[in-house]
Amino acid sequence: MQIKKINIKKVKVVILAGGMGTRLSEYTKLIPKPMINVYKKPILFHIIEHYQNFGFENFILATGYKSNYIVNYFKKNKFFKEIKNKKKSLKHRYFVQTNKSSNFSIVDTGLNTMTGGRVKRLKNYLLPDEYFCLTYGDGVSDVNIKKVLKLHIKRDKIVTVTAVRPPSRFGALKIKRNNVEQFQEKTNFFDSWINGGFFVFKTSLLKFIKGDSTYLEKEPLQKICKINQMVAYKHFGFWHCMDTLRDKENLERFLRSKNAK
Questions:
Q1: Gap between the Cα atoms of 89 and 133, Å rounded
Q2: I need a surface site. Which of 52, 98, 170, 172 has the fewest CB within 10 A?
Q3: pLDDT per position as a tens digit, 88-136
């Protein structure tokens, strides 16, 4: 089977950055969770730079809670320049990065919108593309995104999820020959692999999302799993999310020890 040539620069990267982050209220009373500083910069920019290291340039930030804080950060940063939005049908703030060739659409997807609903609200930004990357605004990893994308194209499923091996309090995956046979949100039912949050989706995912109240991790992914349209990329390297203050402190300690490499 011949694999299509990938133009990484054209592949869109969605980062979900709109949640309230209530378990980190020590910080999120004032700022959105993705903007919490971890080792000298907001965790959001650790995530962005990871994708940039693999050649991705086209970012969509799905904001919500304290969205203006993120917009203002871009406006005040000397390495970002705002470009006037000429597409009246799309309501977003658009920035280009002056020291790199990346661009950013910041889309306010609503204060109380759930993860699936945020993706659905990006419909006009994602179509007619065949596929796109997605991750959350609170997890970092050294996963090879390019390999995840290649697996997605090779296996030709609706969803490719990065599977990792930390604590059992996260969404568990039952995997057989790289096919995901069961997707269970936040359980200790399985303890070998969990959802690491670095996805590649076909845009046909949008058909499985009803509206703002839909959690991506529940009905859509569970339905897709049942029809054998989900595959896993097993990542054995570093992965860490930032759900709580303890997570934040552990991540800070790790990045300091590794000099944020």
A1: 23
A2: 98
A3: 778 899 999 999 999 999 999 999 999 999 999 999 999 999 999 999 9
Distances in Å between the Cα of 103 and the Cα atoms of 22, 48, 56, 60, 158 are 29, 11, 10, 9, 26
The pair of structure tokens assigned to 120 is 């659905």
Which structural domains are found in the chain, ordered by start? 8-256 (3.90.550.10)
Q: What is the DSSP letter of 215?
A: -
In angstroms, the CA 206 to CA 86 distance is: 25
DSSP label at residue 24: G
Residue 104 contacts residue 116 (beta carbons within 8 Å)? no
Q: Classify residue 118 by burial, with Cβ atoms within 10 Å: 0-12, 13-18, 19+.
A: buried
**Closest Cα partner for 19 from 95, 101, 83, 110?**
110
d(CA 43, CA 28): 13
Sign (positive or negative) of CA dihedral 191, 195, 201, 207: positive
Closest CA to 141 of 39, 259, 252, 46: 46
**DSSP element (H, E) containing 48:** helix 43-53
Output the pTM of the full model.
0.90
Q: How many residues does the chain have?
A: 261
Buried-exposed string 157-191: b where 16+ CB fall within 10 A, e elsewhere: bbbbbbbbeeeeebbbbbbeeeebeebbeeeeeee
Would you say 93 and 82 are in contact if contact means Cβ atoms under 8 Å apart?
yes
